[in-house]
């Protein structure tokens, strides 16, 4: 490089080796010097933008990145990469970050209590007639859901302390015993993996606490720990990997006198992914595995979940000024195997459930960070236990406010 100071390939190679060695300043000074020989070169501007982003010189990084895509014929992957970084810079410049979403609406279900459609069932080989209120029943509910995220900059390279809150409450029109209130909080530090030369990735460690009210009674609480790794693999591909442990404790009540039999441990691992096919189409998907123990073995189970589907953005068919609508289609399934037979239902066989679903959602933007959401979903559960066989069609309409 010293012998041929105008050799761009040698300079890029030297800068690459400097980055591997952790000497980002040497890489920056090398590429800055190359601007004398190749002013305005998009590749050079892009590399400098990336380096300045990593050393948290966001203003300088923004200047170089915007210059890198200012010309004609910019490859689409490069443009997507730069736009992702510019969005990250905009967020990173706010040292303390807060975002929240509140949703409220009405929902209808054809089988709100998720019970068999037929009164005639078999218990341990003997025919049995269910009471009328034990079969599937349609119902409406009104609901309120919310989530919030807060991140505090720890004043080190990209590290943060993060807090997430989620909550949900529903009031049934007829089946009061299904009224539900639940909430969960997670909190803990998140570390930027740029310090070990893994760009656009972080690892978080967090504590978990949650609680549920069902009907008029306190139903359960749980506490635990988790870890997650979030990474932007390339401009199109993002991935989130999570592992969590929860200790679950259930409270007996008049409506659930044997709930404490579900006390136990919950282990789960999940992978979520997103792929941007083009600016108007994104594919989403995920897989999850759960192992749940319980004091009563017939309530312990292993579960697998899978889901996938596209999100399509399109211009408003009503008005050009309204903005972009979003339609999401999701398909998936849950497959669950219990550890022991339920002696009341079938003492000869463990319960085995297969649940398949399809869901469509349409979000329409309104004014001032408000939007309207319409959803429809169909779920079908097949099981070797008659008490679990059912299907459910639901439709929901809600308004969303984002902060």
Cα radius of gyration in angstroms: 26 Å
CATH class of the largest domain: Mainly Beta
| Number of helices, where a helix is a run of at least 4 consecutive DSSP H or I residues | 5
Arithmetic mean pLDDT: 89
Largest pleated sheet? 14 strands, antiparallel, barrel
> How many structural domains can be distinguished in the coordinates?
2
What percent strand? over 45%
What structural class do you assign from the helix and strand content?
Answer: alpha+beta
- Unreliable stretches covering 5 or more consecutive residues: none
Q: Could you give the distance between the termini?
A: 51 Å
Quickly give the CATH architecture of the largest domain: Beta Barrel
Strands ordered across the widest β-sheet: 1-4-5-6-7-8-9-10-11-12-13-14-15-16
In percent, how helical is the residue content? 10-25%
Q: Outline, from the CA principal axes?
A: elongated
Q: How is the CATH topology of the largest domain named? A: Porin
The counted number of beta strands is 16
Describe this structure in a few short sentences.
By secondary structure, the chain is of the alpha+beta class.
Give an overview of the whole structure.
The protein has five helices and 16 strands. The protein is an alpha+beta fold and 403 residues long. It has two domains: 8-92, Serine Threonine Protein Phosphatase 5, Tetratricopeptide repeat (Alpha Horseshoe); 96-402, Porin (Beta Barrel). A 14-stranded antiparallel barrel has the order 1-4-5-6-7-8-9-10-11-12-13-14-15-16. Strands 2-3 form a two-stranded antiparallel ribbon. Helix 1 (8-20) runs antiparallel to helix 2, helix 2 (24-34) runs antiparallel to helix 3 and helix 4 runs antiparallel to helix 5 (76-92). The two termini are 51 Å apart.
